[in-house]
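Duplicate of #3305? Posting structure anyway:
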């Protein structure tokens, strides 16, 4: 549980502090955002396992934020629990139809909140924390390692994140700008050519397993991961 990160999107600081306190006691790592814009930045940079989203936010409704995330393939598997004072049945239906995995009305007890989070995470399944396999490459995401034929391939932390993103989005071409946003994060400002440097390093590391061919350059467009060689 200690590696499970929860993003709390709540504009009322007192409620946010209360949630952080009880989730930390339950063993979760927490991230905090007071509005939808901050939440999107944190989602891009930190990749939490679950988001608690308040319905009433200052810049966008939590319902619309949830819908936006579920339409984005990068976040469609993100577990989301909506928090709201709206107790009407039609509001609950709207929240769940909008993509939320659960719906908790205020006021709620900390014990109920933790129990609901645990239930949603169980339903989300363990696949995120195990491994990703493609071709002769395996990503041990729990151990943060790259393997081929049972042997470890040494890669740097940035190359690991880059490979993880490409392997989990195979056959799609991503520009340098898109990779910077998705892998480095929305708030990191580096030259686009930095991507080329790390692609070269990643290919060099994968060449030991004859897997560098999976990292393909699409001229004028960007890079993709593909086992169709």
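Output from current build:
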């Amino acid at each position: 549980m200690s590696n499970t990160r929860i993003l709390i999107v709540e504009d009322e600081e007192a409620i946010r502090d209360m949630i952080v306190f009880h989730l930390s006691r339950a063993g979760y790592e927490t991230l905090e955002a007071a509005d939808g814009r901050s939440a999107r930045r944190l989602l891009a940079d930190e990749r939490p396992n679950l988001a608690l989203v308040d319905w009433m936010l200052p810049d966008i409704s939590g319902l619309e934020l949830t819908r936006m995330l579920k339409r984005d393939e990068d976040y469609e598997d993100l577990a989301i629990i909506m928090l709201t004072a709206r107790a009407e049945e039609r509001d609950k239906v709207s929240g769940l139809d909008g993509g939320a995995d659960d719906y908790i009305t205020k006021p709620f007890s900390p014990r109920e909140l933790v129990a609901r989070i645990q239930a949603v995470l169980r339903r989300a399944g363990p696949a995120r924390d195990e491994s990703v396999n493609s071709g002769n490459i395996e990503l041990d995401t729990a151990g943060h390692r790259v393997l081929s034929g049972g042997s470890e391939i040494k890669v740097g932390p940035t190359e690991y994140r880059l490979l993880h993103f490409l392997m989990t989005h195979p056959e799609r071409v991503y520009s340098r700008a898109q990779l910077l946003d998705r892998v480095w994060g929305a708030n990191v400002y580096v030259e686009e050519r930095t991507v080329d440097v790390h692609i070269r390093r990643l290919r060099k590391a994968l060449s030991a397993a004859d897997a560098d061919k999976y990292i393909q350059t699409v001229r004028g467009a960007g890079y993709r991961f593909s086992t169709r060689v």
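Confirmed duplicate; merging threads. Residues 110-124 form the longest helix (15 residues). The chain has a mean pLDDT of 85.
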